[in-house]
Write a structure and sequence with these properties.
This protein is of the alpha+beta class. It contains seven helices and ten strands. The strands form three sheets. Strands 6, 7, 8, 9 and 10 form a five-stranded antiparallel β-sheet that branches. The radius of gyration is 65 Å and the shape is rod-shaped.
């Protein structure tokens, strides 16, 4: 229990006035007046001060209350074990009413701590730690979400690149197939070439070798009409520029001439009807 005993009239009270700027340090300022205004020495007394009012000119009416330290110590000793529990000592005016002062020095005042102060400090610390943990968890969650989003973006980019690569490969295959198909469509097949040769070569002609390397056709064989072979092969839509490669060589065993013929495969002439080529072959033979 906080108690503030009151002193009887064993004190010295001095009134005066001060500049209002001294109001904030009233007790400190009036402490220097103890030696001049009271019969006590400053180091032998306990004192306090109060403001009584404000004058018309703005000056403060103040009162300095001083009690001898010996008197105060005697009063405290009379209280016995209660003295250390005091929070302050007051003085009474002429009517016995307390002045509202505290003549007990700061070093001798009992300062009771608020029992909730430590609890509040602990609760504040716990709240701060919880707030920090919550913010850290929120930051960790956002970082994890950002990393997951980055992984998803990288996966999407990888899939897009793979799809683009597959599309490029597919286009290359399509373009390559179209090119091969176009090339094949414009080049006579081996079957067409052999059929055309069978139609144009006379019956007394035998082939020992037939080869096609690129655009070059090579015929080697024996014929009883070797001199007319060039004329028979001219006019075909499947090849151009038929000609003998070298001179005819008589073969005494077969009584035929050995020949070597060359021609160039014609591009863009595949699939021409055989009847047309046969008619051109007949015209060439008639001309010979």
């Amino acid at each position: 229990m906080r108690e503030t005993p009151e002193f009887p009239r064993a004190v010295e009270m001095v009134r005066g006035h001060l500049d209002p700027r001294a109001g904030e340090r009233l007790r400190e300022v009036l402490g220097f007046e103890i030696d001049r205004q009271t019969p006590f020495a400053a180091d032998e007394a306990q004192y306090d001060a109060r403001v009584l009012g404000t004058r018309g000119d703005g000056q403060l009416d103040v009162e300095l209350v001083v009690v001898p330290r010996a008197t105060l110590d005697a009063a405290l000793a009379a209280l016995g074990p209660l003295a250390p529990t005091l929070a302050g000592v007051d003085a009474a005016d002429a009517d016995g009413a307390p002045l509202g002062l505290n003549l007990l020095g700061d070093a001798r005042r009992l300062r009771r701590e608020d029992p909730w102060r430590r609890r509040n400090a602990v609760m504040l610390l716990v709240a701060a730690l919880a707030l920090f943990a919550g913010m850290w968890q929120m930051l960790a969650n956002r970082q994890a979400a950002a990393e997951l989003f980055e992984q998803q973006v990288e996966e999407s980019v990888r899939q897009a690149r793979a799809a683009s690569l597959e599309k490029r490969r597919l286009l290359d295959l399509v373009e390559g197939g179209a090119f091969l198909q176009s090339a094949r469509a414009g080049t006579p097949t081996m079957v067409e070439l052999m059929d055309e040769l069978a139609r144009r070569l006379p019956d007394g002609t035998y082939l020992e070798k037939l080869s096609i390397e690129g655009d070059r056709i090579l015929l080697i064989g024996l014929s009883s009409e070797a001199s007319s072979l060039v004329g028979r092969l001219q006019g075909s839509t499947l090849w151009t520029a038929p000609a003998l490669a070298g001179a005819l060589q008589p073969d005494p065993r077969s009584r035929m001439d050995r020949f070597t013929l060359t021609a160039t495969v014609a591009r863009g002439q595949a699939g021409v009807p055989a009847a047309a080529t046969a008619g051109e072959a007949g015209d060439a033979a008639a001309a010979d």
